[in-house]
Amino acid sequence: MADLTKIQIPEDRKPTDGRFGSGPSKVRPESLDALRAVATTYLGTSHRQRTVRDQVARLRQGIADLFDLPDGYEVVLGNGGTTAFWEVAVFSLIRNQAQCASFGEFGSKFVAAVKDAPFLADPSVRQAAPGTAPELIAEAGVDAYATPHNETSTGVAVPVRRVAGADPGALMLHDATSAAGGLAVDVAESDVYYFAPQKALASDGGLWLALLSPTALERAHEIKESGRYIPTFLDLITAIDNSRLSQTYNTPALATIFLAAEQVDWLLSQGGLSWAAKRTAESASVLYGWAERCPVAQPFVTDPALRSPMVATIDFDDSVDAAGLAAALRANGILDTEPYRKLGRNQLRVALYPAIDPADVAALTSCLDYLLEQS
To answer: Could you count the other beta carbons within 10 Å of the beta carbon of residue 293?
Structure first.
């Protein structure tokens, strides 16, 4: 089999920016310029002082504006990323039993976190094969329902909506890590819409953000007051109290906060979440449309209604070496199109976040055409 990495793609076919990683994702150069401009007065300074707390406040307010936060909801943040927030949810939001949707790597990891908690009942799990999605259904005794909004590993997106007939007071939790900032959402349909900044917010990892409803805030206080042991780092009340002071419990990555705030302000300046959702939908139309026309490729997610406009997965026929394609793209400066490692499919995975120009997605398909022609 020919070594595709030897193929030189013509420069005029290449994207202007070749970063298509699903996380960490493309950071806009303009954000880096803004960070550089404040480097000597911001980076390396105390996170308890106004210089940093102003940026935390800026990020929280920007998020509230971006999502048109309903009355009574709060933007809360803490260190550790989404993985840490799974444990926060286990300790501080699930009273006894959760129902969880599992249709990819990240949904299944949250299921595992819930199962491992000795103080909780085993979760009720609604499972579906990768590339599809299950539906959450009302179940007596369940006090929290959890699902990814966008499954990063498979490129499946599901609607954000409450479970009809759920017990009064049951919480809705949505893992929006690769959805927030690029998919339309009515936050009122969720109690806990949580995410990290290294995807659509075009920043680095290590931080979690959560949009909490009054019901979720009340649940966190209820569990805290019940006497359940909660490590301070994972204590949601600690995070809430610190967020209200425009800070985090322990030292955050200052660059991450600043870059996320820059991206949120940029999204707002472009037209907000509706603009971002339109832009990602345009990129998705370009890539999925190409795959449907290509004789040796097809979208992995067969149901168009479930295809993510944030992370696209494209399968290739056995006659095509998708790993070779990804390696050839990388050799030509087009990065991070490899599939999710544990999915084990002959495919490419491409991020379509708002920072990525739809014109660059079109250029990527041109590069793929060239590689397929040359191979």
So the answer is: 9
Confidence label for 321 from pLDDT (cuts 50, 70 and 90)? very high
Query: In whole angstroms, what is the distance from residue 145 CA to residue 128 CA?
Result: 16
Whether 213 contacts 263, CB under 8 Å = no
Stretch 134-163: mean pLDDT: 98
Give every CB contact of residue 312 below 8 A, 6+ residues apart in sequence.
Answer: 155, 284, 287, 288, 299, 349, 350, 352
pLDDT digits (tens, 9 = 90+) for 282-303: 999 999 999 999 999 999 999 9
Q: Show the DSSP H helices in the chain as ranges.
A: 29-37, 39-42, 50-66, 81-92, 105-116, 214-225, 236-244, 254-270, 272-293, 322-331, 358-374
Are 180 and 311 contacting, i.e. CB atoms less than 8 angstroms apart? no
CA neighbor of 367 nearest in space, from 286, 298, 276, 309: 286
Measured from the Cβ of residue 164, the count of other Cβ atoms closer than 10 Å reads 8
- Average pLDDT of span 232-256: 98
How many residues are present in the chain? 375
Classify residue 119 by burial, with Cβ atoms within 10 Å: 0-12, 13-18, 19+.
Answer: exposed
pLDDT digits (tens, 9 = 90+) for 267-286: 999 999 999 999 999 999 99
3-class secondary-structure state, position 3: coil
